[in-house]
Amino acid sequence: xxxxxxxxxxxxxxxxxxxxxxxxxxxxxxxxxxxxxxxxxxxxxxxxxxxxxxxxxxxxxxxxxxxxxxxxxxxxxxxxxxxxxxxxxxxxxxxxxxxxxxxxxxxxxxxxxxxxxxxxxxxxxxxxxxxxxxxxxxxxxxxxxxxxxxxxxxxxxxxxxxxxxxxxxxxxxxxxxxxxxxxxxxxxxxxxxxxxxxxxxxxxxxxxxxxxxxxxxxxxxxxxxxxxxxxxxxxxxxxxxxxxxxxxxxxxxxxxxxxxxxxxxxxxxxxxxxxxxxxxxxxxxxxxxxxxxxxxxxxxxxxxxxxxxxxxxxxxxxxxxxxxxxxxxxxxxxxxxxxxxxxxxxxxxxxxxxxxxxxxxxxxxxxxxxxxxxxxxxxxxxxxxxxxxxxxxxxxxxxxxxxxxxxxxxxxxxxxxxxxxxxxxxxxxxxxxxxxxxxxxxxxxxxxxxxxxxxxxxxxxxxxxxxxxxxxxxxxxxxxxxxxxxxxxxxxxxxxxxxxxxxxxxxxxxxxxxxxxxxxxxxxxxxxxxxxxxxxxxxxxxxxxxxxxxxxxxxxxxxxxxxxxxxxxxxxxxxxxxxxxxxxxxxxxxxxxxxxxxxxxxxxxxxxxxxxxxxxxxxxxxxxxxxxxxxxxxxxxxxxxxxxxxxxxxxxxxxxxxxxxxxxxxxxxxxxxxxxxxxxxxxxxxxxxxxxxxxxxxxxxxxxxxxxxxxxxxxxxxxxxxxx
Length: 724
Prior knowledge:
alpha+beta; 8-stranded antiparallel beta sheet; 6-stranded mixed beta sheet; elongated; S1_domain; RNA-binding; transferase
């Protein structure tokens, strides 16, 4: 056989074959495999650099999820006809894989590690992101890269009251939740969820259901590693020596405690500056070979202080109680001309969210590997450098901004009204003005305020809150509403968003290998109580429900439905008819293939006029209706009048005026606006109009009155005849 190291491993997952092939493709990578789940096929590779990267204080891991449109039999829509930058969904899939694998790498390793999942074939019933997560776990496990895996990941749905592992495309349409759960052999390593207001119990049971399914796949991967795995390499540790750390600790611990003991991030940072200077002054010469590790020692010392306060004293850095939320404030209508705005402040974290409403043609077009081709609700999140008191040029949204925007979008999507209820495209932009932890959850609260202020009839208000964690052996402590320092030095950022009824989104970031069921249960319960408090005490007193009317600056949207066979008549040759309607009514019109018509205009009367015109074109003018039309042609027997763009009828000369008309030119000219009444169609179906009847009905004229007004009675000027 040509591929002498080729191995094929097979198991079953949710009733579908899961096949892992090793030794055929990408053999120069540190670890590689082709993961096949159903007909979804993904090449997964993991490679590590031979030497550590100099001058960094973090583990340099990169994870890429590469969507290839050939995987779904499509040619890219770009000018170059090749894949460009990663789509938003590809970025989110990469983050989904990154979160459970990153904590399992040695924290003191500085060798670059690159993980790539290349999507080569897509079966709609077998999600590529879950398949990639399993394939990546195999690739790292069999490589020489040090790692405490493997992990497995599954998606959990709730269909007709039953939990389903890796639901099919049809099941996903009906599912009340979409939860991705990653697990090690004993702990839950990652949770990513969107849901239609499910209860804590439903969410918890779904997570545990997915965790149990993962155990079989973890054992499957362990078997692959045992058979074909490489020996893990040794690496130079980047940790400071114990001697240096203990020296710094003894010298600076009291100063660090004093510096950290404040609820103001700015004061804390200012207090720490002289501590850093004093430590460097004392130890740079004593430990010249480890001078670059002194900052690491100070970081570890701060972490030690914060965690000891929490675990031993039940004390938080800012003096709050363990389940106490920072001071909160909510406002709406901060910006004059936008369609809706809301400001949410939690301690020193502040998010301003702005809602913009637009016509259906403003929906985002998507060019990805799944079946979704457009997006009607968009949520964008911006995190400028000034929000953390720094200065750096803006380079557009990074993976973090994309991820937090998607989390807020997922949290609010279940309460967004359907297009039938609210025929608008909705874009919300969250501007982080100040950041000291939980900005993503602040953006959810601010966006709820903004949507209600804009008059979007959301089904229920949504709030978000985070829960932190500190662990030591079997001990653990959770705390609500973590600020930045607790996020940096803690073990978990468990973000939960939802209504009072239930959960709409979860995202869990971990720095440890995983969570026990008890921690997950406690986090769900604490975040539920906290978000109910935020809704009842802070947000709803500011704006209790969505406004009944839109902003005067927002477009007014009306809809109508026409026979699809009449779409061509409404659009007209080369679009001339619809362009004329838009110009005449100062509006925008979108027509769907099914005959649904959306008309938007800032002026409601203009929108109503446009709908009236569209209905007239599609259904024909109603007999007896009065129109104001424009004369387009003059004939000897009458004139032609366009009553709406594309609809023209004839006024016979006998119906042109209330008096007898000899020549049409004596009454009207081309371009004149006249009122006409629709007459019954003739035997040939032609549209007949009457100016005469319209004048009688609208202006109350009669033929006799008109004649007497315009032509006085004739006098007989002949001499009287005398009888002889």
